[in-house]
């Protein structure tokens, strides 16, 4: 009797294991949370120092077109206008997404609807391979192939927004494609049957039912691609021209937030205005990736309804 | 005797090497409901899907035999399956409205046919929804998502969608088995109303449903057609002992 009572009141082995597992995963969660929060804290404190310590106005930072930290204008205010980089970043992001979307959707439709067997055999490994190629390789190919091609086609140096967009387009294509493939595969097979049974042709079934049903997922895929393009540094830096000037056409050499960051961060002194201004750029990047995340969530929520 | 709208002879179907239908002979008069009953795996759904060539979508299925729709060979190499499926509509077991509005769902078949005239679309959508006995329930929310409806309503939308292209024959693959009894009853009533104007072939697991709504019943077992008869005779006094056993619940 006592034995049973003892066995029942004592914590069982399973409970102990359960507790152990729970604390391990909780610990991991706390660690990740701490890392994320400290990154935010670090970037924000450094990035905001430009405005609070160096007294640069937020407005002139966001809209100023002259980027020359260390120099001052006629009024003695530092020249830290980030608008050229902000515009540059958004330009290459939207352009590359614009070019990538039709290719990605086309490839995904081919892989899932038109030729699933060959798609799975050839295109799947190819897209997976493309994801794994280091960005410096993309940048190098961009430097040796895309930039000269641009030079031949449109004149100028070849470095610029368009070259950057082309390289980014190839880089985000596999991401957008594979996510679109997943979305199309998730469209119930019954939709296909129902559409065909109603006398739709295969093409009508694809664009009237499947693509329409998959639209939220495809949008999510595009935003993911854009988030990737926005944050990509190395490959863009190699082909975009790195002139912190407002781009006045697609061929003009310009810069993105990331390219100026990678270029400058090693050459500035911690705590100086030059350094703080770069942190402000990083803060914009961070906030933008947050925005991309929120957009993806919003689309996901709308799609679930 | 009314004219035969659909004739099938010696229908055999193979999954790879394995023969799943062993020579079915069955034909259909114009109008009315024919119920296909039989235990699971008896081949009734498989047979039904052969009628509008849905097996074309699966690589390893081979169908042989004669299928004549108004005297025309359904499996002729030059048969346009798109046109065929407009003539032989189909409603599936799971209500499958597309994730669009009710209106767009019902108009789908017409639009794929190239109908753009708003007046024609409006009229067809209304008449199809009325025919499927759901007009009164949805007429004020035609632009609401069809997914927001109940299962029974969704299934009647599916029926309306299939009716919109004015098919001659409507194939129904267990249209009520995923529904609750009340919804199933509404769908049944819809079918009864339609039987004066359409030729319907319905696969059902429910023998009471077959006896309630069908004019003729065909009993399938293990890929063979055991018996086909007027529904009344079938349920009261079938010719075959096996049919008698199945109907009275002794197997299956």
TrEMBL record, chain B:
Keyword Ion transport found: no
Residue ranges occupied by any ABC transporter domain in the UniProt entry: 6-247
Matching Gene3D superfamilies: P-loop containing nucleotide triphosphate hydrolases (3.40.50.300)
Record-linked PROSITE patterns: ABC_TRANSPORTER_1, ABC_TRANSPORTER_2
Pfam families membership: ABC_tran
GO cellular component terms attached to this protein's record: membrane
Molecular function GO labels: ATP binding; ATP hydrolysis activity; phosphate transmembrane transporter activity
PANTHER family: ABC TRANSPORTER I FAMILY MEMBER 17 (PTHR43423)
Descriptive protein name: ABC transporter domain-containing protein
